[in-house]
Amino acid sequence: MKPAPSPLSQAAWTLAAASILLLCAPTASAIDIVLDYTLDAQNENWFDATTPAGAARRAAVDTAAAFLSAIITNDDWAAVSVSNESFTLSDIAASTIRGLNGAVLIGVPESDGAGYSYGGAGNDIDVTNRSSVGANEYLVYVGAHAFDAGSTANANGVWDSNDRRNDAGRSGAQFNTWGGRINFNTAKTWYAGSNPGVDPTGVYGVQDNNKSPPSDSGADNWDWSTSSGTWKGFQLATIDPAATGLRDLYATAVHELMHALGATTSTIVDYVGVDAGGDFIGANLLAAYGGPVPGDGGHFAANTQSIVWGSDDIVSETVLDPDSLAGVRKYLTEVDAALLRDLGYEVLDRFPAPLLAGDYNGDGAVDAADYSVWRDNLGLAVTLPGDPTPGVVSADDYPVWREAFGDPQSVADLVRASSAEPAAVPEPAGYAMLAIAAAATFLCRRLGLPVRGVESPGLLG
């Protein structure tokens, strides 16, 4: 019988706590979309994280940015200067706003007489709070203002049209720049709940197996429109009735961030390609859609359908569709991801499936073959799939496999039959440490955080 684990010493508990923090610490993304809320803080402070409503709004937008950061894997962007850069706003109800440095800016009346614009002689929104953007960072300023009565928009987003990092050849070139801005209409009513986490694939719900049903089923989570014969998006009320009648902040943030990443009319023409009918003809789009994708300037045409990114067969409108419905959440689709690829971004096909601890050959099972992989690599500086402590393969990796394998008699038989003796196993305190590490890994995944050393590499789109 295995002896009961002895109590952990204070030093061991300290090490355990540090291990949990290390396991749960966000890994460095290849591209990190950095959101700067200074503009909002100087004005309506709609994203004030000290209030429950502001914190929920910020979490929705932060999660959208974290999702795109997690699936875009470019890793060769140098730091760039943003000195003397500026951006614009339009359709703002207020005749004055404050810039990033707090200075009052005077709006220019717009031609429809309904509101004001900012960005021109004397009222540029100058980037004054930083002088550069770090390597592999993409800076996006986030604002929130009441839009004027002449505007029907829920939000808008643009990218910085200066300082393109790679403009050579355009079609097929890597498109990126220092960043841009997104702005939300505070005159609209918003839903900021049911945060999907960085990896939204676990909350996609279920959809009718009949992809052209005669009516919208109440048994699934997805909204089918009988009038257009298309899937509109995820019905939030099926998981939270409070979402009824509200615009989804998370989906809108993903949409606007795509604009800030370069999905705009002129850029799509230059980098992606548009045919005489206005359809988008980028190579990745053609492959994902099976032909030219119906376009509408800087958007896909309304009702353009695609498979939801990371799902098996869920169909939805693209997130870059020009319209949105109250109570409906749109997730990124394969066609949206294809557009990002045609803009020069490297995008994952799906989130890597978490590997089982002890699955040292990465085949999805913990069995005798994993023992052989551990034995054959013992002492080598290699990283095995399913190793929660990557680096040199050591004796500490044996009990991880043994515990996952789960059958003591089978382990004993395997060891006796092997030409190699088993490595020394940890003392009882080591079992507790392994349990803590396993619990930390589970907790990280439940929180939607990456777990270092267990992601499967090489799943680039």
Folded structure, characterized:
InterPro entries: EF_Hand_1_Ca_BS. The chain is of the alpha+beta class and 461 residues long. It has eleven helices and 24 strands. The protein has helices spanning 10-24, 38-42, 52-71, 249-260, 265-272, 283-289, 334-342, 368-377, 397-405, 408-417, 428-446, and strands spanning 32-36, 80-81, 86-87, 89-92, 96-98, 104-106, 108-109, 116-118, 125-126, 132-133, 137-145, 155-159, 179-185, 190-191, 222-225, 230-235, 247-248, 295-296, 299-300, 305-307, 315-317, 328-329, 381-382, 391-392. The chain has a four-stranded mixed beta sheet with strand order 1-11-13-12. Helix 1 runs parallel beside helix 11 (428-446) and helix 8 (368-377) runs antiparallel to helix 9 (397-405). The longest helix is centred in the first third of the chain and has 20 residues, at 52-71. Residues 1-28, 163-174 and 420-461 have low confidence and may be disordered.
State the helical fraction. 25-40%
Please report the total strand number as a whole number.
24
N-to-C terminal Cα separation, in Å?
49 Å
User: What's the tally of helices?
Assistant: 11
Global shape: globular
Average predicted local confidence, pLDDT: 82
β content, as a range? 15-25%
Radius of gyration: 26 Å
> Low-confidence parts, pLDDT < 50 over ≥5 residues?
1-28, 163-174, 420-461
Count of spatially separate domains: 2
Structural class call reads alpha+beta
Largest sheet: 4 strands, mixed
Q: If strands are numbered along the chain, what order do they take across the biggest sheet?
A: 1-11-13-12
